[in-house]
């Protein structure tokens, strides 16, 4: 991130970006599983959605849904939650109860292959307050710091979302902030005074943090130039138990979340 | 191998019983400013013997009793001839005058070219600083490293990358020496410019192969740069005003003919790249070169030199970044005997990186420091043998990073990544040995050792080591340490020792032709921790130790050399093959910033490179220049540690980020008149390796490209034409002030060369696009240089 900023800074005046045509080879489609189960920390239950799609050629406008799958979750205590396919590839379960410290196993069958993953719920702290400043590279960007207190003596990982017209994501760990009050940082050049924006904090596992770290380095504009890192195939925590070679993309995670609604001054 | 050495030493002994001989020695200097000249040919034509002045201008040669003609010649200087009568040892210094236009056609005897052709030195590129100063460059900013890229075997990872790559080696594998001190980061502004102020540089040499035994510590190449000593005849100042930076350099005698000073500074203009914004942003660099030289007597010279450079970026309150090198060096040249020259160096060098990020709330600094002691001797044993031996040791302190909160509101806890300490030392001996008129060799042996000292909290791991393969998810993961070990920094944690043989052979086919061969083994104990295509200033150096083994390289090279029409044209053709062990590669998603346990994200791999180089030069006349072409391949692979593991990139070989199949450059310089000269260079290179996606998917509102095998695609080919012209107005009769204008055009036909092609979703249309990033359209420049 830092490198990208610097490179941008140095070269902005002399560089030039053009959209070009590139012929790409195409790889065989794979299943993509977005199983991010989120519970508001102050609620006992939440509706949960799991999305199944497949990969598509890079320049295709839409990614197709994966049709004909079935999705369910079994807990180690023996409870079973069968998801209902409400649209093509979109599976829903109303009122999924919040069950801390219980292992949940996700099971998906698709094209006669069984995909599984196991996770537990990750807790999350409150968001306390927001500080805003105007500055940044252009001098008129809004910069927000949203504060929270990190729980002491344990490794914590967070995913933050900032929601205005656009949604931006940040991930943080507490290696250098353990047990302290600290903040997540967002900037928004399109924000205006009076906008109602929302900050969201999600507790995540180290595995998901690492996964998002790689994903983020490969999406967006940070994947080119002399300071790029090698792109790679990013593997998540879901395993194709029938045919391990045909591994899926995506991740199964269970997070508690908190929100803070803020009016831009 | 041992046998060969034994035979060679025996022959040394036999030749000691020769006829009555005397030594002629001295120092060769430039008549204008008393700068010592390295690489000057000293010849006795009728004796068929000669030598070359060393890096400090010293020469020594044994001749039989009697009258002989001695000839001193150096490209660009008038050849000087003297008759000497050897009745005793003779000490004789020479001052050479620069060749003026009309004197350039001095008759050159056959012997001179034979000396260049017959010496076993190979794979070496020398560029005259005056040549470099004329080459067209972006923004008119004269740049040593960018000029080296025009030579065969030297390339980089794209237009905006830092560092350079020699024969398919990585940028951290070049030993860059400024007055014998190691420079850890040779780039300003992330590689747009290099840290060397061309005005302060006397000469430079790049060793790409056949590296002599006195160099070590890096596996790929040696760039040996010497600063000027300072004019000990008269005071002079010169400088320049350019688009990017201004320079000023002053030099002169402290005590005439005996001691001199040199001080030079260069600074870019602040706000340079940021004039479009109106807040308090600054981005600039500066550097300072100093040198003091004291010729105490005919036998002793003391040289003190220093370099200090910094890059500074500041973005309002939120961002502040400073980095750079500092170097101090004290040297003592001492002539022990008429045929033994010694140099003792005490060197301090460091690299500092500092960063304040308000949006994270911390101050950060990291760096590397070293203290270096070197003692080198040149021993001119007899007419056929000269010896070069010495000792070198370096003490290192590595600071991988310190972090502290930048304000009370910050949640950052002050912490320090563990400092690391090491001691590297080497002893070497090297012989330059001419067995006959036709056959000569340079062979030597270097023994290097590296002691890694104890540190706080060294992680200990279970049997599988610091990296675990998770076979369920098919990924590499960090291993949780089982504990830590504290060991005093006076105790040795791990030690390494390596023998590094070096050998180069030359065989003269005819007076103007020779073939040469070389082999060298090199060991590198430091690793630059970087997983980007080109290094960045915040990358840290990691020493070998418990979990990291040193890099080890073997290179063989062979070549054919020929000159035509006197020395007017020269041709060099070389082929090389090299293999490297323990090249670090990084597991997917490795975060290297502020990582106190690098061993958890690296796997050792291997690398190899091979290729052919051609260099055709025209050295003399109104038109000079060269044609350089390299055909090469550079690749690496990191296999799994067991058959179950996939390794990196499925254990397949993949092209390095700087692999270029074809690399061609043509450089020409034409002196039209005393007032005008014109320069042009054209470059054509195969596009750099890159990785294109083969599919996409959506996850958490992000569009994720699915990538294929590493570096299996290529960017479009790169080519560019640059032109420049220098106008030197006639000097006023009595004035000492002279000046020149340099006009340049970079990328004349404004080709949009791709630095990268990246794949992303357009934020507005939500459609995926391939974006070509190109730098530098057509860039005109003008620089004013002056001297008085």
Overview of this protein structure:
The complex is a heterodimer of chains A (265) and B (788). Chain A is 9% helix and 49% strand. With 265 residues, chain A is mainly β. Chain A has two domains: 31-122 and 235-255, Immunoglobulin-like (Sandwich), CATH 2.60.40.10; 123-220 and 258-263, Immunoglobulin-like (Sandwich), CATH 2.60.40. In chain A, the strands form three sheets. In chain A, strands 2, 3, 6, 7, 10, 13, 14, 16 and 18 form a nine-stranded mixed sheet that branches. In chain A, strands 5-4-8-9-17 form a five-stranded antiparallel sheet, with no helix packed on it. Chain A has a three-stranded antiparallel sheet with strand order 11-12-15, with no helix packed on it. In chain A, strand 6 and strand 7 (90-97) form a beta hairpin. The radius of gyration of chain A is 20 Å and the shape is globular. Mean pLDDT of chain A is 86; it is low at 1-13. Chain B has two domains: 19-107, Sandwich (Immunoglobulin-like), CATH 2.60.40; 221-787, Beta Barrel (Maltoporin, Chain A), CATH 2.40.170.20. Helix content of chain B is 4%, strand content 56%. Chain B is built from four helices and 53 strands. At the A-B interface, helix 1, strand 1, strand 2, strand 15 and helix 2 of A face strand 46, strand 47, strand 51 and strand 52 of B. Strand 1 (15-20) of chain A pairs antiparallel with strand 52 (768-775) of chain B, so a sheet runs across the interface.
């Amino acid at each position: 991130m830092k490198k990208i900023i610097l490179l941008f800074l140095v070269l902005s005046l002399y560089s030039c970006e053009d959209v070009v045509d590139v012929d790409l080879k195409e790889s065989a489609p794979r299943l993509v599983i977005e199983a991010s189960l989120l519970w508001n920390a102050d609620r006992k239950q939440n509706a949960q959605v799991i999305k199944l799609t497949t990969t598509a050629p890079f320049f295709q406008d839409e990614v197709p849904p994966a049709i004909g799958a079935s999705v369910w979750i079994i807990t180690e205590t023996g409870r079973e939650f069968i998801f209902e396919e409400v649209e093509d590839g979109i599976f829903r379960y109303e009122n999924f109860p919040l069950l801390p410290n219980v292992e949940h196993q996700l099971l998906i069958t698709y094209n006669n292959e069984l995909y599984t993953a196991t996770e537990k719920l990750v807790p999350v702290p409150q968001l306390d307050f927001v500080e805003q400043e105007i500055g940044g590279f252009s001098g008129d960007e809004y910069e927000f710091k949203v504060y929270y207190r990190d729980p002491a003596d344990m490794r914590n990982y967070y995913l933050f979302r900032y929601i205005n017209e656009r949604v931006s994501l940040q991930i943080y760990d507490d290696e250098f902030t353990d047990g302290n009050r600290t903040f997540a940082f967002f900037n928004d050049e399109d924000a205006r005074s009076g906008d109602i924006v929302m900050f969201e904090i999600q507790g995540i596992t180290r595995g998901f943090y690492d996964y998002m770290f790689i994903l983020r380095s490969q999406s967006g504009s940070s994947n080119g130039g002399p300071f790029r890192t090698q792109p790679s195939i990013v593997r998540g925590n879901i395993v194709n138990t029938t045919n391990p070679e045909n591994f899926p993309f995506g991740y199964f995670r269970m997070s508690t979340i908190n929100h803070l609604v803020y009016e831009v001054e | 191998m041992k046998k060969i050495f034994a035979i060679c030493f025996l022959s040394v002994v036999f030749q000691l019983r020769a006829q009555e001989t005397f030594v002629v020695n001295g120092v060769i200097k430039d008549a204008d400013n008393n700068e010592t000249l390295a690489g000057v040919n000293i010849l006795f034509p009728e004796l068929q013997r000669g030598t070359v002045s060393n890096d400090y201008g010293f020469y020594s040669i044994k001749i039989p009793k009697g009258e002989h003609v001695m000839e001193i010649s150096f490209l660009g200087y008038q050849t000087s001839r003297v008759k000497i009568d050897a009745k005793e040892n003779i000490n004789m210094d020479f001052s050479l005058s620069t060749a003026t236009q009309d004197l350039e056609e001095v008759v050159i005897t056959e012997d001179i070219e034979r000396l260049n052709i017959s010496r076993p030195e190979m794979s070496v590129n020398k560029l005259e600083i005056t040549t470099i100063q004329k080459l067209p460059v972006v923004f008119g900013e004269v740049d040593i490293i960018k000029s080296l890229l025009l030579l065969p075997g030297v390339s980089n990872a794209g237009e905006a990358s830092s560092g350079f790559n020699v024969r398919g080696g990585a940028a951290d594998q070049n030993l860059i020496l400024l007055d014998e001190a190691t420079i850890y980061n040779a780039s300003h502004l992330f590689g747009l410019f290099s840290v060397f102020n061309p005005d302060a540089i006397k000469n430079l040499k790049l060793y790409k192969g056949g590296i002599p035994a006195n160099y070590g510590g890096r596996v790929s190449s040696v760039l040996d740069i010497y600063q000027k000593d300072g004019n000990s005849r008269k005071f002079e100042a010169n400088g320049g005003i350019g688009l990017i930076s201004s320079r000023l350099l002053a030099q002169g005698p402290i005590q005439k003919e005996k001691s001199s000073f040199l001080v030079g500074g260069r600074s870019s203009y602040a706000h340079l790249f940021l004039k479009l914004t109106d807040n308090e942003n600054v981005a600039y660099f500066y550097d300072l070169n100093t040198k003091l030289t004291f010729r105490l007597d005919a036998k002793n010279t003391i040289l003190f030199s220093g370099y200090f450079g910094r890059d500074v970026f500041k973005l309002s309150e939120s961002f502040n970044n400073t980095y750079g090198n500092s170097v101090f060096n004290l040297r003592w040249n001492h002539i022990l005997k008429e045929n033994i020259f010694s140099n003792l160096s005490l060197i301090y060098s460091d690299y500092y990186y500092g960063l304040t990020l308000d949006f994270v709330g911390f101050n950060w600094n990291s760096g590397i420091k070293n203290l270096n002691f070197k003692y080198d001797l040149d021993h001119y044993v007899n007419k056929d043998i000269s010896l070069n031996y010495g000792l070198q040791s370096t003490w290192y302190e590595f600071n991988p990073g310190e972090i502290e909160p930048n304000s009370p509101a910050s949640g950052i806890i002050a912490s320090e990544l563990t400092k690391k300490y090491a001691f590297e030392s080497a002893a070497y001996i090297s012989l330059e040995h001419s067995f006959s008129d036709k056959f000569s060799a340079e062979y030597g042996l270097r023994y290097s050792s590296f002691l890694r000292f104890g540190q706080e909290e060294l992680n200990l791991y279970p049997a599988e080591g610091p990296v675990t393969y998770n076979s369920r998810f098919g990924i590499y993961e960090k291993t949780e340490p089982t504990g830590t070990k504290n060991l005093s920094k006076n105790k040795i944690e791990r030690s390494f020792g390596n023998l590094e043989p070096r050998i180069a052979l030359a065989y003269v086919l005819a007076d103007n032709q020779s073939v040469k061969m070389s082999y060298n083994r090199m060991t590198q104990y430091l690793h630059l921790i970087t997983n980007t295509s080109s290094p960045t200033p915040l990358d840290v150096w990691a020493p070998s130790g418990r979990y990291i083994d040193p890099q080890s390289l073997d290179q063989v090279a062979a070549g054919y050399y020929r000159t035509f029409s006197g020395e007017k044209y020269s041709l060099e053709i070389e082929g090389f093959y090299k293999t490297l062990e323990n090249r670090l590669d990084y597991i997917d998603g490795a975060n290297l910033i502020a990582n106190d346990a690098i061993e958890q994200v690296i796997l050792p791999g291997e690398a190899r490179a091979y290729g052919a180089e051609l260099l055709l030069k025209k050295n003399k006349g109104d038109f000079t220049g060269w044609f350089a072409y390299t055909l090469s391949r550079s690749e690496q692979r990191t296999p799994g540690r067991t058959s179950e593991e996939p390794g990196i990139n499925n254990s397949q070989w993949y092209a390095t980020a700087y692999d270029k199949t074809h690399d061609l450059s043509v450089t020409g310089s034409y002196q039209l008149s005393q007032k005008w000269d014109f320069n042009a260079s054209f470059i054509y290179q195969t596009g750099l390796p890159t990785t294109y996606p083969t599919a996409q998917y959506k996850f958490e509102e992000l569009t994720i490209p699915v990538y294929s095998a590493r570096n299996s695609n290529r960017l479009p080919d790169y080519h560019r034409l640059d032109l420049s012209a220098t106008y030197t107005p006639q000097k006023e009769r009595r004035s000492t002030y002279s000046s020149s204008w340099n006009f340049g055009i970079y990328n004349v036909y404004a080709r949009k060369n791709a630095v990268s092609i990246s794949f992303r979703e357009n934020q507005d249309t939500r459609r995926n696009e391939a974006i070509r990033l190109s730098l530098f359209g057509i860039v005109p420049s003008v620089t004013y240089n002056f001297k008085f």
